[in-house]
Amino acid sequence: MTTSTDALPRKRVHLAAHFPGVNNTTVWADPRSGSQIDFASFVHLARTAERGRFDFFFLAEGLRLRELKGRIHDLDVVGRPESLTVLAALAAVTGRLGLAGTVNATFNEPYELARRLATLDHLSEGRAAWNVVTSSDAFTGENFRRGGYLDRADRYTRAAEFVRVSRELWDSWAPGDLVADQESGHFVRHGDVGAVRHDGPHFTVEGHFNVPRAPQGHPVIIQAGDSDEGREFAASTADVIFSRHGTLEEGRAFYTDVKRRLSRYGRERHELKIMPAATFALGDTDEEAAEHAAEIRRLQVSPQTAIAFLEQIWGRDMSAYDPDGPLPDVEPEQEGGVSQGRVQVADRAAVAAKWRAVAEEKNLTIRQLVIEMTGRQSFVGSPATVARRIDEFVQADAADGFILVPHLTPGGLDDFVDRVVPLLQERGVFRADYEGTTLRDHLGLAVPRSLPEAAPAATSGDAPRLVPEAVPTAVRAAVPAAVPEGES
C-alpha cells in the first residue's frame, strides 16, 4: 500500500532575499535599475522582504576589485559597502527580518568579529547571521597580509577554529540581565563573565569578552562551500547552507549527502537548512514569462560580458573574436589566466570541450553559447507556476527553501512578494506572519545547546529590548528610536 505525498505533513518553505551583487546577475541597462550604494536601495529591498515575511536579508562581500587582463573589470564592479555596517543601519528600519552578512574567516580575527556580530544581534534584537566564507586567493590576500594568502589546505581548519573561538567568546557571559542602577544610571550585570583561554593552531585568545550575551546566544551561521571539505564544515558547524544546485535532481543529491553527514556530529536533519540561490522571471502566462526570462539573459550577457566569460574559461585574450560569431578553434591555456579575483576554472580543457560540443550541436555563436552555459532563471512562469515549483522542490527534499536573487536593484523582489508569496501562503507552506522575534525563530532553529531555553517570544511589536524600562529617562533618551515606516 502506498501513501500519497498529499497526506504527509507539508514542509514549510523558507525564503531569503539576496541584494544583487557586483556581477552580471544585475541588469544595469534596465531603466528601473538603481544604485547599489545608496542606503535607500538597501532599505527598499529589505522592507520588501520583510513585507513578504522572508526569513532574512543577505549581503555578499567583495574584498578586492576584480581585474581582467591587468585592469579593473568595469563590467561588473561598481563598489560594495561593508556588510555589517549596512546591516546595523537596516536594523533600525526593519523589525523582524533577519540580517545576514558575508564576512571572510581568512582575513579577520575572532575577537573583533565576534564583537561586531554580537553587537548586531543586540541592535537587531536577535536577527543577526554570519555567512562564513574562506579564501586561498593570493590576489585578494595581498590587501591583508604579507605573502598574500592562506594555503588552501588550511582555510577550512582556520574557519572551523575561528567559529569555535567565536562561540567560546559568545558563551563566556553566563545568563543574566542588564539592569540599571537608579543612582548612577550605570548598567549592572546580573550574571558571571568567564575568562576565555584558547590556544590553537591559528588563534591564541585570552581574556574577557566585552559584549553581553546576545539575544540569540549565537548569531545564525551560514556557509556557502560546495567542496567535500565545505560540506563537512557545514554539517559540523552551520545552521544554513547557501548552495548553488539549481535542478531538482542536483538539489536532491546535495540535500541527501549533506543531511546524512549531520549524524556524525550529533545533529538532527532539521538543525541545518539548505537554501540554494535562485533567480526567477514572472509573467501573466508561462509563455510571457519565458520571453521575459530570455530578454533578461540577453541583457545580462552583453557582447563584452560574453567575451569576458570566454576568456575566463580559455585563460587567454579573446578580444579579437566577434561575440556574435562562431567559437574560435583555439585550445585553452592550461596555466595562468587573464582574470584576477574570480574562482579559477579547475580543468579548462574539459570545460572548453563541453562548451565546444554544445556550440556545435546547437550552432551557437559565442554570445549565445555563454547565455546557454552560464545559467538561467531558476523559476520561470506565471506566479502560480513559480509557487508550485518552489513548493515541489521543498516537498521533494531538494531544498528547505531559497535565497532569491532578483535581477533588478532595488525593486526586483516587488512582484515576487506581491504575486507569488500569497500563493505560497494559500498552499499552506509559507507563514502569513512572523511567529517569533529572532532569526532562529523564523528558521525553526533551537537556541545553541550551551544556552538555557529562551523565554517565550514576545508578540509582534513588543520585542524584548536590551535597554529595560527601568533605565532612567536620561539614559534611555540616548537610544535612537526606530525610523518610522516609509522613512529612510
Describe the protein's architecture and organization.
Residues 30-396 form the Luciferase-like domain. This protein has two domains: 11-284 and 377-443, TIM Barrel (Alpha-Beta Barrel), CATH 3.20.20.30; 302-373, no CATH class. It has 15 helices and 18 strands. The protein has helices at 39-51, 83-91, 110-123, 138-141, 155-170, 228-237, 248-261, 286-300, 303-314, 348-362, 366-373, 383-395, 414-426, 439-443, 473-476, and strands spanning 14-18, 56-59, 67-68, 71-72, 98-104, 128-133, 177-180, 187-190, 196-199, 204-207, 220-223, 240-241, 273-274, 277-278, 280-282, 339-340, 379-381, 401-404. The strands form five sheets. A nine-stranded parallel beta sheet has the order 13-12-11-6-5-2-1-18-14. Helix 6 (228-237) links the parallel strand 11 (220-223) and strand 12 (240-241).
How many beta-strand runs?
18
Q: Radius of gyration from the CA trace? A: 24 Å
Global structural class: alpha/beta
CATH level-two architecture of the largest domain: Alpha-Beta Barrel
Shape: globular
Q: What's the number of domains?
A: 2
| Tally of individual helices | 15
Largest sheet: 9 strands, parallel
Distance between the termini: 58 Å
Strand content: 5-15%
CATH superfamily of the largest domain: Luciferase-like domain
The top-level CATH class of the largest domain is Alpha Beta
